[in-house]
Amino acid sequence: MTLTVILQAAGGGMLGTIVPMVLIMVVFYFFMIRPQVKKAKDHKKLVAELGKGDKVITTAGIHGKIVDLNETTFLIEVESGAKIRFDKSAVSLDATKAVTAAKA
Asked: HSE (CB half, 13 Å, CA atoms) of 103?
């Protein structure tokens, strides 16, 4: 009889330890991993929609207009007329859409 009581107590303790760990992992997923995946997906969609003539802001803070696109890079023209080539992942914000959203 005492062996049965000891086994039941050990099983309940194990369940009491596993449930909080699972809850911590679920919370971690919804507050840390899922938002990062969503942000990466939105950025990839934004980069795919860019075209010639779009105004962009790079992660370095450079404002310019896209004048040429390649598979992985784009060429932007800055205010002084200089042209700089950037990787597509360097786009921070599509200024054309931001301006349109601000007017609406």
From this structure: 6
CA dist., res. 94 & res. 63, Å (int): 10
Tokens standing for 104?
């609406």
User: How many domains does the chain contain in total?
Assistant: 2
- Assess whether 36 and 56 both reside in one domain: no
- Which among 43, 19, 39 has a CA at the least distance from the CA of 91? 43
pLDDT tens-digit readout, 61-102: 888 999 999 989 999 999 889 999 999 888 886 666 675 576
Q: Which domain holds residue 37?
A: 1-49
Amino acid at 57: I
